[in-house]
């Protein structure tokens, strides 16, 4: 008989969320509590497998007694606190952040951003045609994935996934300062000349499509990428005995990319180069 360990139960905290009393396990963030209560607080830089970086500031909320708005993704819930998610101050802050991001980078492949721009009545074009933009050409220097930094919002999720939070390869980091800050490999070299091991875990956490499978990039360029026609099937990687779970994204009977479930206790969304990119033999028709 298999026994599943339940772990140590966590004490429940009681506080007020938008005027309603709620309970959340000790250690939960305000964002965790909002999601459990069915409240839709937008966020871009938060990742369910990474330590929050507080980079995008889209998830800010008001906490009674706090001088400034606080990021819901990292602020821990506390007993007795009063949190308000939809105040005019919080909504205005999100609106400005979305306007600044959308005016400087291409958010066309960022999930839900179009919805949020409409909800918060954000107008990125109000800064005028001379607003500074990150107009970088996509970097296609290998056959596995593409770096399109014209879509990068500097959320640091790829840096953390490549660094001490998961892969420990440290192939990528932030180069430059201010508006010249960029995600780059050492000496801004081609990916093939870097320490990258092509695990693709940076692609898994990228929220904007700045990092993508080359197969997806090519299909988007050709206008054939259509997620509504794709199926997802989770299976077990057969390359070794670790037991990593793979989710195969299939369109028109072809695997177009591979992800991994974030709630899987083995992988937590991470894979190696074989698991993420070694699927071509499955559909070799020769």
Automatic annotation (TrEMBL):
<feature type="domain" description="4Fe-4S ferredoxin-type">
    <location>
        <begin position="188"/>
        <end position="216"/>
    </location>
</feature>
<protein>
    <submittedName>
        <fullName>NADH dehydrogenase</fullName>
    </submittedName>
</protein>
<dbReference type="Pfam" id="PF12838">
    <property type="entry name" value="Fer4_7"/>
</dbReference>
<keyword id="KW-0411">Iron-sulfur</keyword>
<keyword id="KW-0479">Metal-binding</keyword>
<dbReference type="Pfam" id="PF13510">
    <property type="entry name" value="Fer2_4"/>
</dbReference>
<feature type="domain" description="2Fe-2S ferredoxin-type">
    <location>
        <begin position="11"/>
        <end position="89"/>
    </location>
</feature>
<feature type="domain" description="4Fe-4S Mo/W bis-MGD-type">
    <location>
        <begin position="230"/>
        <end position="286"/>
    </location>
</feature>
<dbReference type="InterPro" id="IPR027467">
    <property type="entry name" value="MopterinOxRdtase_cofactor_BS"/>
</dbReference>
<dbReference type="InterPro" id="IPR017896">
    <property type="entry name" value="4Fe4S_Fe-S-bd"/>
</dbReference>
<dbReference type="InterPro" id="IPR017900">
    <property type="entry name" value="4Fe4S_Fe_S_CS"/>
</dbReference>
<dbReference type="InterPro" id="IPR036010">
    <property type="entry name" value="2Fe-2S_ferredoxin-like_sf"/>
</dbReference>
<dbReference type="InterPro" id="IPR006963">
    <property type="entry name" value="Mopterin_OxRdtase_4Fe-4S_dom"/>
</dbReference>
<keyword id="KW-0004">4Fe-4S</keyword>
<dbReference type="Pfam" id="PF04879">
    <property type="entry name" value="Molybdop_Fe4S4"/>
</dbReference>
<dbReference type="InterPro" id="IPR050157">
    <property type="entry name" value="PSI_iron-sulfur_center"/>
</dbReference>
<keyword id="KW-0408">Iron</keyword>
<dbReference type="InterPro" id="IPR001041">
    <property type="entry name" value="2Fe-2S_ferredoxin-type"/>
</dbReference>
